[in-house]
Amino acid sequence: MSSIHVRVADWQKENAELRRIRESVFIAEQAVPPELEWDSDDASAVHFLALEGDYPIGTARLLSNGHIGRVSVLRDWRGLKVGDALMRAVLTEAERLGLQEQMLSAQVHATPFYERLGFEIVSGEYLEAGIPHVDMVRRSH
């Protein structure tokens, strides 16, 4: 496996790559309705791309209020710490921007992953796009 790296992406220029990953993970795999996947926040969010070499394999976004979302890694690259690299890049950027608190809506099965990164569950379970989720928060030290 070649090196995996994460960088900030340009929503305008790299829209096709960002959309391809999210469509594959959320719409095709998890049956999230397209109208729930795409929203007006994409235009103002900081987007991240995880790449193996120059091939995009994962993405995430950070909103100006510290909300992290749309964390997704293509199926063939899961279990290879791509999500870790992606989240570490997002958290580093959030702290650089002075966002002392980061929040996300996590699919319940993914909560141990986020807990390892310092997030705590702060809500009961609820359904989002038919998938069980919980709210999680991380405070920078």
From TrEMBL:
Matches recorded under InterPro entries: Acyl_CoA_acyltransferase, Bact_Acetyltransf, GNAT_dom
Single GO term (MF): acyltransferase activity, transferring groups other than amino-acyl groups
The organism's place on the tree of life at top rank: Bacteria
UniProt xrefs under PROSITE patterns: GNAT
Gene3D superfamilies, per database record: 3.40.630.30
Residues of the N-acetyltransferase domain: 4-141
Pfam families given in the database record: Acetyltransf_10
Record's keyword terms, sorted: Acyltransferase, Transferase
UniProt xrefs under CDD domains: NAT_SF
Record protein name field: Predicted N-acyltransferase, GNAT family
Native organism taxonomy: Bacteria, Pseudomonadati, Pseudomonadota, Gammaproteobacteria, Pseudomonadales
